[in-house]
Amino acid sequence: MSEASLTHEFQYSSARHQAETAISGMWLFLATEVLFFGALFLTWIYSRHWNQAGFDAGAQQTELAIGTINTVILVVSSFVYSAGVAFIEAGNSRRLIQCCAVAWALGVAFLILKFGIEWRDDFAKHLFPGPGFAVQGPLNGGARIFFVFYFLGTALHGLHMVGGLALVGWIILRARRGEFSPASYTPVIVVGLYWSFVDMVWIVLYPLIYLVGRGP
Amino acid sequence: MSDTVIEAPEFAKVTASYLTDGFTLRSWLLTTDHKRIAVLYLGTITIFFFVGGAAAALMRYNLIVPEGMIGSAETYNRLFTMHGVVMVWFFLIPAVPVTLGNFIVPLMIGARDLAFPKLNLISWYLFVFAGLVALYSLFVGGVDTGWTFYTPLTSAYSKGHVVATAVAIIIAGFSSIATGLNFIVTIHRLRAPGMTWYRMPVFLWSLYATSVILVMATPVLAMTLLLLAFERIFHIGVFDPALGGDPLLFQHLFWFYSHPAVYVMILPGFGVISEIIPAFSRKRIFGYKFIVWCSIAIGVISFLVWGHHMFVAGTSLYSALVFSILSYMVAVPSAIKVFNWIGTMHKGFIRFDAPMLYALGFIGLFTMGGLTGLFVAALAADVHLTQTYFVVAHFHYVMVGGMVSAFFAGLHFWWPKITGRMYPEMWGRAGAVIIFIGFNLTFFPQFILGYLGMPRRYHSYPPEFQVLNVLSSAGATILAAGYLLPLGYMTWSLFYGKRASANPWGATGLEWQTSSPPLTENFVTTPTVTEPPYNYPPPEVVQHHV
Amino acid sequence: MRFWLPQATTSAAEVDYLILALLLTSCAILALVFGLILLYMIKYRAGSDIDRGVLADKTWRLEAAWTVATLLIFFGLFVWGADLYVRLFQPPPDALKIYVVGKQWMWKIEHQGGQREINALHLPVGRPIQLVMTSEDVIHDFSVPAFRIKHDVLPGRYETLWFEVNEPGTYHLFCTQFCGTGHSDMFGEVVAMPDPEYQNWLEQNGASETLAQAGQTLFMRYGCSGCHGGNGAGGSQSGSTVRAPALAGLYGSPVTLIDGSIVTADDLYIRDCILLPERRRVASYPPLMPSFAGQISEEDLLKIIAYIKSLTPEKQS
């Protein structure tokens, strides 16, 4: 497909103009997401300052192994997706589909580990900050607030992951219909930006949940 | 020609436009045309304006007698909360950007639509959905916490529908973010050939600054309200001291958004006025570069002043000093704009059509409101004046006297472009004058009430405040009449107004180079820009044909 | 109907001068703005033929001039307001302390001698008064317009306000932070009278015991003396198995916390130790202090703190 024959919406002067604009739009959207999660992280850190002992007690109850495996899964998933972008840039749509499928599967694995196993364990250990909360005594208040941030943060991240999975799935479907080529693959880039961003949010969540306050 | 055949010859002259491009409901509800979306938004925010206005009318009615005409304090508390919530999030923040902005921005930059038309439609649906949730919350009893939602009142004590209202605001916030994002990308990427940044009319710079604030501040509000909702439902303890939380943390997070939000409300208004004054003085704007950079400066500094809402809240002395000096800084660019508008009128050829009357009213009322902001920025004065009717009068002068006047100014100015019809000029001027008078009668007494100590959000008050309250309520009836008037004659003009030419005001700007109303694709061919904005001939050319 | 507000404190007149200055500045600027607009509306209306001459070319000098002028005026106003505020922020050390507890929807006042009032506050004229305030539920705001002061009253914290009344009289007290249904009903009266009359009032309304005496009873009833010893002598002195810090001489002294920071043992510190001990872990003591959150009311807390304060001899000024 030659560039001249690529269609574009009538407010753009060319397909390339539209493609570049779509990418700018996604970057700007991600900037707003930084402020959204940023407010959460700020409140988290501020609350920890006033409840350090309780937060530490909470952090020690988290499952470091699952958290670390999940971090590796997400980083690999982002990497594999980016490889897919490189493949379609070189014209290999088949490899793009395979990379997206692997990235998608890894994302699903993350969700299963996080919500199917880890959350289930957390509830079994009475770590949900409601009645019957596991940590009692003077550290009850701080630990409860820690777990509030834990559940809220991972839930919000999880929702964004589900959105990301839908988007990656959409890319796979479109790629299978042959819609992408080296001249035209902007949606792949745009979804890749979003997918990597969701990864970045986790990179901040991981130390806040599993590492800070864990002790030696 | 007899009166009975007004319609027929006119109809013969109707050419295709975005309005005739499809008459089905589907063509409107599934449109991606920025102009149609602007009209959809106009209808929606008009409804909210009158919902919020009805609440205000009932509030002023209550305050006629010291013990409160409405017997129940709880009803009054729900009224003033809904008035605030509806007016702030469902009228003031969206108004100019989603109606005038959506319609005019692509035309003004010489584009055929915004960067992301489908996102634009989604933003309208989000807004409508948010509005329905807010109205639901209102019908099941409303909320009685004030639009500022301070904890722990909202998180642990209020019996109102806090979570429903918070959800409505969060969704409206997503709509705002989508609109802001669209404008930023559009202004960066879709300018017509030759339209450099310094050839853009001020309206675009203002909307750009507004959009940056929207996309940066609104997510913080979303997270704050989400945390509030969780606090209320699950008693998590971030904001409630009884659970180890900090109520001041809520205030910081809330005002970090809500202060920039007030600049979201006024900046587009500044942009509208900056279009109208040159057009009706038939003269280029004075100090263009100063004005555009002042818009950006206001956008940036607006993020640094939120603590001035908390001078008596229990923050540190250091914080109070820093926020006070920064609040004076943020007032400087606004002052510069006022001087520049007056400078524009100097040696101009001034006409007094309705848009200009509204714009002049804006300058007067906004300046009064802005000057009273200096009172509350002065720390020791604020201690006395904060939480009283002085502050209520201050923000109504800037928000209503300023912003709503600017909105009406822009609506009248661009009405011919949007609808292809002229509104009846005499009624337009009458409306502007009635609103100016009614507004001052309503809100000026409130400055005095505030200095004398009458607190805000009071259902009943000591008898010595009655005379000023009655004066204020009397003014409110005049103001209400002034606001109902345009509803009447603008609607009339849709059917019977004189048909407008492409450029009835003889104004500069690309939007006036295309038909009224425009075609769906805006321009037959994309224009190329070679001249600076406001390229009116200088006075010596006009007068002596030099 | 009244257009004026009494100036009942030493700082009220100063606040009024500041407001007057702001008013005059505003009127001057407004006169300039309105005046020029009206002038130009007439002089430069479209129908007017007067020669408009040529437009000035380099206008940036004018722009710079009015920008600098604005900045200077604003800076001047800031300094004036800030200076007065700083003085209003810092109570003199010899101020008479009166305790205020706000709750939905009333003000409870406690004088050190144990006298209690609801929605009323009796004060002596001519000496500095410091209000120590807290809330039992939501945020309120203690406001006396005639004094030109107000301050938010927060749950979980102590906030202070100070003033010196110089005009005897009765003045409105309002709650000025929206606090729920009865917000406009939290209405009270501040009654300022010359000192001899005030002393009279204190005697006539005297309670059977002072705040500190009531606090001592509570100190024992809640079991504080079990670890901290009778008279707050400290755990090791009283034969208790628990090593708890001595409270005698504590109030107003520096305390080293477990993270190395040093804080002053003021009202808020003591309150936090009782309700949120894990936040104020003192260096070199085991974390055994239980929390009394939810068990002691705000008013009882004030009494206990008054008692602990009485264990420190007053510093001679």
Largest sheet of chain A: none
From the helix content, strand content and strand pairing of chain A, which structural class follows?
mainly alpha
Strand content of chain A: under 5%
Most extensive protein-chain contact, per-chain counts: B-C, 92 and 87 residues
Which sequence of SSEs, written as H and E, runs from N to C of chain C? Answer: HHEEEEEEEEEEHHHEEHH
CATH class of chain A: Mainly Alpha
What is the helical fraction of chain A, as a range of percent?
Answer: over 70%
Count of discrete alpha- or pi-helical segments spanning 4 or more residues of chain C: 7
Overview of the structural elements:
The complex is a heterotrimer of chains A (216), B (546) and C (317). With 216 residues, chain A is mainly alpha-helical. Chain A has one domain: Cytochrome c oxidase, subunit III, four-helix bundle (Four Helix Bundle (Hemerythrin (Met), subunit A), Up-down Bundle), CATH 1.20.120.80. Chain A contains six helices and no strands. Chain A is elongated. The model of chain A has no long low-confidence stretch (mean pLDDT 90). The model of chain B is unreliable at 1-13 (pLDDT under 50). In chain B, 65% of the residues are buried. Chain B is mainly α and 546 residues long. Chain B has 18 helices and no strands. Chain C is of the alpha+beta class and 317 residues long. Helix content of chain C is 35%, strand content 20%. Chain C contains seven helices and twelve strands. In chain C, helix 1 (12-43) runs antiparallel to helix 2 (60-89) and helix 4 packs across helix 7. The relative contact order of chain C is 0.11. Chains in contact: A-B, A-C, B-C. The interface between A and C is small, with 8 and 8 residues.
Quick summary of this structure?
With 216 residues, chain A is mainly alpha-helical. In chain A, 76% of the residues lie in helices and 0% in strands. Chain B is 68% helix and 0% strand.
SSE map:
The complex is a heterotrimer of chains A (216), B (546) and C (317).
Chain A: H1 15-50, H2 52-59, H3 64-89, H4 93-124, H5 140-176, H6 186-211
Chain B: H1 7-13, H2 25-29, H3 34-62, H4 73-92, H5 95-109, H6 117-139, H7 153-157, H8 162-189, H9 202-234, H10 247-281, H11 288-301, H12 317-345, H13 354-377, H14 379-385, H15 389-419, H16 425-451, H17 466-496, H18 539-544
Helix pairs in contact in B: 3-4, 3-5, 3-6, 3-17, 5-8, 5-9, 5-15, 6-8, 8-9, 9-10, 9-11, 10-12, 10-13, 10-15, 11-12, 12-13, 13-15, 13-16, 15-16, 16-17
Chain C: H1 12-43, H2 60-89, E1 96-103, E2 106-110, E3 116-118, E4 120-124, E5 128-135, E6 140-144, E7 149-153, E8 159-164, E9 169-175, E10 188-193, H3 195-204, H4 211-221, H5 224-228, E11 254-256, E12 262-264, H6 267-275, H7 298-310
Parallel strand pairs in C: 1-5, 4-10
Antiparallel strand pairs in C: 1-2, 2-3, 5-8, 6-7, 6-9, 9-10, 11-12
Helix pairs in contact in C: 1-2, 4-7
